[in-house]
């Protein structure tokens, strides 16, 4: 065995039995990859790169291909990830966790929701990307369009819920 602190740390990262070992390492690596991809998209949007042409294409294409069924489906998806629904689910989860005496997890859910909302609003005001035009008139939104709040809300909430379910499955405390 090596006496170097770095090698001990690396060995611990790949230990399957340690809850902060391999699974945390994989989760951290995936998070860094997703963050890296988000930064690439952000830089592309900020510099009005090729990815921004998607809005023009969507605005021109939507009126000709959108059906009432699609509108209903997308309204449902949008409702599922809107701010009010996400706040409801986070508070419900926090209450359930609090009653199960999982106070730290309950506070984590609330803190992450507040941090996510703050980061999203700060990014929107830094990027100041105008929303696409009128062909999306079924969705009346104000403010800036990037990053998309619904996507961030859903990613954060369902990522936390997935983590909670995973922790509950692998420990006897939940």
Short description:
By secondary structure, this protein is mainly alpha-helical. It is 71% helix and 0% strand. The protein is built from 7 helices and no strands.
Describe this structure as you would to a colleague.
The chain has 174 residues and is mainly α. The chain is 71% helix and 0% strand. The protein contains seven helices and no strands. α5 runs antiparallel to α6, α5 packs parallel to α7 and α6 runs antiparallel to α7. The protein is globular and about 65 Å long. The model has no long low-confidence stretch (mean pLDDT 76).
Q: Give the overall pLDDT as a whole number.
A: 76
Overall outline: globular
| SS summary, helix count | 7
Question: What is the C-alpha radius of gyration, as a whole number of Å?
Answer: 20 Å
- Given as residue ranges, the uncertain stretches (5+ residues, pLDDT < 50) are none
Number of strands: 0
Fraction in beta strands:
under 5%
Q: What is the string of SSEs from the N terminus onward? A: HHHHHHH
Secondary-structure-based class equals mainly alpha
> Separation of termini?
36 Å
Main sheet summary: none
Measured as a percent range, the helix fraction is over 70%
Structural key phrases:
174 residues, mainly alpha, 7 helices
Topology:
Layout: H1 5-13, H2 22-46, H3 53-65, H4 68-80, H5 83-99, H6 103-127, H7 149-170
Helix pairs in contact: 5-6, 5-7, 6-7
């Amino acid at each position: 065995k090596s006496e170097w602190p770095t090698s001990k740390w690396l060995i611990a990262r790949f230990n399957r039995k340690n809850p902060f070992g391999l699974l945390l390492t994989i989760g951290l690596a995936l998070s860094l990859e997703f963050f890296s991809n988000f930064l690439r998209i952000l830089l592309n949007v900020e510099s009005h790169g090729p990815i921004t042409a998607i809005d023009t294409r969507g605005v021109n294409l939507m009126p000709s291909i959108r059906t009432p069924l699609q509108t209903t489906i997308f309204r449902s998806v949008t409702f599922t990830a809107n701010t009010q629904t996400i706040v409801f689910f986070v508070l419900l989860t926090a209450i359930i966790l609090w009653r199960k005496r999982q106070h730290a997890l309950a506070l984590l859910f609330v803190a992450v929701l507040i941090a996510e909302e703050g980061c999203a609003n700060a990014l929107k005001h830094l990027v100041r990307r105008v929303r696409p035009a009128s062909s999306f008139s079924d969705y009346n939104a104000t403010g800036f369009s990037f990053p998309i709040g619904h996507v961030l809300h859903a990613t954060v909430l369902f990522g936390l819920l997935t983590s909670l379910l995973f922790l509950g499955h692998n420990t006897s405390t939940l």
